[in-house]
């Protein structure tokens, strides 16, 4: 699932290319993926509108289609935007495309997991996932005191608390592994057992990890914004490889079908042995 670094790069890449451009073609072979609250037929309604400046709300990208429409996309696990010349072969699994004079913005999704809404600006508050998420993990973020205050309502393991998006929006399974490795805190530690120093380390690691990763993704992803760039990560999905900090073999388990990767030496404790 794309997280802040991926989404920041996708957003900036598309803003340089499609902001201000008119939608001159629209195809939606699988229009049902788009929950349209603004018009009965999304693909007809969108023609002639102009892309405004794309913004990011947590893990959602918001595409203004001026005047008075927004396409709000949460790519979830398998959604992808592809930006390409119209002559480029249309892949199977394309749900819709919005064409400008010289390019296609295509939405692909191998397992139909993305959540896409097409709304008027005054309908934005009807998208429940946007109401449920916490403040952005990067954009403005929260102060350290607010971070601690917000954490008090959660009792579970720190990985789950951070990855759910209610505490802070825009981070998930991959970057929470990276943040906790940077902070030297085990993903399985219960929130209540974390010391003041450890809480501070986690808080400080969030913008550091996200900013550094954004720079790497910015160098490696464009123009293939439909490809996920994750090979540079320190621990996430690096089970069996040496920890870049201490050389210990990185551990990996998959509780609830979500991979967690961590270094038992740098991030000790928290895991109940079975
Ligand atoms: Zn280590």
Tell me what the structure shows:
With 274 residues, this protein is α+β, with helices and mostly antiparallel strands. The protein folds into 2 domains: 4-132, Alpha-Beta Barrel (N-terminal domain of MutM-like DNA repair proteins); 144-262, Helicase, Ruva Protein, domain 3 (Orthogonal Bundle). 27% of the residues lie in helices and 19% in strands. It is built from 7 helices and 12 strands. Strands 2, 3, 4, 5, 6 and 10 form a 6-stranded mixed beta sheet that branches. Helix 1 packs parallel to helix 7 and helix 6 crosses helix 7. The longest helix is centred in the C-terminal third of the chain and has 25 residues, at 196-220. The radius of gyration is 20 Å and the shape is globular. It binds zinc ion. Residues 243, 245-246, 248, 263, 265-266 line the site of zinc ion. Residues 243, 245-246, 248, 263, 265-266 line the site of zinc ion (ZN).
**What's the CATH class of the largest domain, please?**
Alpha Beta
Supply Rg: 20 Å
Mean pLDDT: 95
Number of domains: 2
- In DSSP terms, counting alpha (H) and pi (I) runs of 4 or more, how many helices? 7
Pattern of helices and strands? HEEHEEEEEEEEHHHHHEE
The ligands found in this model are:
zinc ion
Proportion of β residues?
15-25%
Please identify which CATH superfamily of the largest domain we are dealing with. Answer: MutM-like, N-terminal
| CATH architecture level-2 label of the largest domain | Alpha-Beta Barrel
Q: How would you characterize the largest beta sheet?
A: 6 strands, mixed
Structural class: alpha+beta
Shape: globular
């Amino acid at each position: 699932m794309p997280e802040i670094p991926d989404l920041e790069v996708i957003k900036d890449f598309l803003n340089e290319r499609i902001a201000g451009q008119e939608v001159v073609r629209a195809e939606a072979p699988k229009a049902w993926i788009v929950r349209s609250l603004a018009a009965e037929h999304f693909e007809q309604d969108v023609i002639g509108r102009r892309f405004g400046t794309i913004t990011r709300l947590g893990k959602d990208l918001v595409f203004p289609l001026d005047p008075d429409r927004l396409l709000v996309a949460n790519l979830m696990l398998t959604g992808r935007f592809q930006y390409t010349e119209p002559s480029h072969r249309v892949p199977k699994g394309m749900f819709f495309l919005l064409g400008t004079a010289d390019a296609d913005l295509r939405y692909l999704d191998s397992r139909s997991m993305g959540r896409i809404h097409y709304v008027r600006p005054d309908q934005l508050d009807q998208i429940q996932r946007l109401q449920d998420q916490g403040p952005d993990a990067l954009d403005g973020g929260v102060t350290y005191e607010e971070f601690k205050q917000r954490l008090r309502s959660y009792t579970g393991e720190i990985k789950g608390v951070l990855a759910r998006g209610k505490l802070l929006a825009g981070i998930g399974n991959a970057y929470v592994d990276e943040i906790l490795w940077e902070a030297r805190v085990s993903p399985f530690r219960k929130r209540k057992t974390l010391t003041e120093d450890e809480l501070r380390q986690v808080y400080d690691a969030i913008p550091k990890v996200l900013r550094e990763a954004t720079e790497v993704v910015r160098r490696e992803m464009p123009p293939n914004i439909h490809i996920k760039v994750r090979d540079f990560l320190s621990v996430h999905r690096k089970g069996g490889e040496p920890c870049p900090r201490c050389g210990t073999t990185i551990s990996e388990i998959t509780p609830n079908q979500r991979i967690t990767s961590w270094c038992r030496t740098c991030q000790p404790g928290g895991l109940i042995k079975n």
